[in-house]
Amino acid sequence: MKRDFTKLLDISKEECLYLIDRSKELKELKKQGREYRPLRDRYLAMIFEKASTRTRISFEVGIRDLGGTPIVLTKGDTQMGRGEPIEDMARVLSKYVDAIMIRTYGQDVVERLAKWSTVPVINGLTDEYHPCQVLSDLFTIWEIKKDFKDLKIVYIGDGNNMANSWIEAAILLNLNFTIATPEGYEPISHLMERAKRNHNFQFFNDPFEAAKDADVINTDVWVSMGQEEEQAKRKRVFKSYRIDEKLLNVAKKDVIVMHCLPAHRGEEIEGDVFERFSHVIFTQAENRLHVQKAILEWLMLGRANRTI
To answer: How crowded is residue 73: how many other Cβ atoms within 10 Å of its Cβ?
Structure first.
C-alpha cells in the first residue's frame, strides 16, 4: 500500500524510530564513501511553491546519492498557478515519477496531492508542518545526547510549522516537551489539546519558565515566509523570546541550542549564542540529507536493504 509523509503523525512510533536508526546507517555509509544506489531508474518530482535552500539541495543530493533522478519544478514550471487542479496534477505526475516532494503554503495542498497521487508524497514544508526538519532534529539530538527519552526538550518562539511538528513528535514519542509562545501566537489548537493529555507536555507564555532545566532549546524565525507585513509587530511581540545567555542561565549546564535556519542573529537568537552552538545547528542542516534519504528509501522501496 502506498504511504505518504505529510506530517509526523502519518507514521507510527516504531516507524519514526526506524527512520532515525536508518538515518544513522546511511550517514555512516556516506562518510565511508560506500556506493549505495537502490533507487536507480527512480524519479522524484520536487515541487517548490516556496523558495528553498536546504530542502532543495538536501533532497536533490539525497535522491542522486541513492541512484535516482530529481526533477525540479518551481512555481513557474507547472500549471498549478494557472488553475490546473491539484487532483489532475497528482494523477499526471503519478504516471511519470516514483515519488513527489512538495514545499508549499497550505497543508491542504499536500494532503490533496497525497489523496489523488498513486505514488508517495512528502511534505517538504507547509505553513502548518515541517516534518522532515523535526525528524532530522530528533536524529541530531539522538546523535549528540545519545537518546531523547529522558530529556527536557523546549521550543521557544512562534507557534509556527516547526512548533506544530515538534508537538506532533512529542505526541508520537511521548517526549518531555515544553513550549513557550506569546499570547495569540500559539500552535494549532487541536494539537495543543491532544498534547495536554500527556503529563510530560507543558505550555507557557513565559520563556524563562519554559527554559528552566532544559536539555535542548529550539527556536525559529519570528517572521516566516508570507508574514512580511507583520514584521514590525512581530519584532515587538517576540523581543523577550530571544535565545540569549540570560535565558540559557536557567537551563542545564550542558544544554544544546538548535535552530532550523535561516537564522536572524539579534532577533530570535543572539549572535554569540548562535556561534557557540553552531556545531549543533549545522549538524541539524547536514542531517536533513541523511534523514530524507531514509524517508525516500522507505517510501519508494517499502523497505531498506539492511545488508548494506
So the answer is: 18
Rounded to a whole number of angstroms, the CA Rg of the chain reads: 19
**Domain 8-130+288-301 identical in fold to domain 132-284:** yes
Domain-wise residue ranges, the chain: 8-130+288-301, 132-284
Tell whether the model's pLDDT for residue 304 goes beyond 70.
no
* Residue 91 a catalytic site member: no
pLDDT > 60? residue 284: yes
Report which DSSP code applies to 138.
H
What value does the mean pLDDT take over residues 191-216? 96
8-130+288-301 CATH fold: Rossmann fold (3.40.50)
With 60 as the cut, is the pLDDT of residue 308 above it?
no
Among the listed residues 22, 242, 288, 290, the single catalytic one is 288
**What does residue 6 show for φ and ψ, rounded to 5 degrees?**
-90, -20
- Would you say how long the chain is, in residues? 308
pTM: 0.95
Q: What pLDDT, on a 0 to 100 scale, did the predictor assign at position 149?
A: 84
Which entry of 22, 65, 127, 133 is annotated as an active-site residue? 133
Catalytic residue among 4, 98, 220, 292: 220
Is domain 132-284 in CATH 3.40.50.1370, yes or no?
Answer: yes
User: In angstroms, rounded to a whole number, what is the distance separating the alpha carbons of residues 163 and 156?
Assistant: 9
Residue 150 known to be catalytic: no
Q: Is 56 a catalytic residue?
A: no
Residues 252-265 have pLDDT tens digits of 999 999 999 999 99
Which listed residue (42, 54, 56, 130) is catalytic?
130
220 classed as catalytic? yes
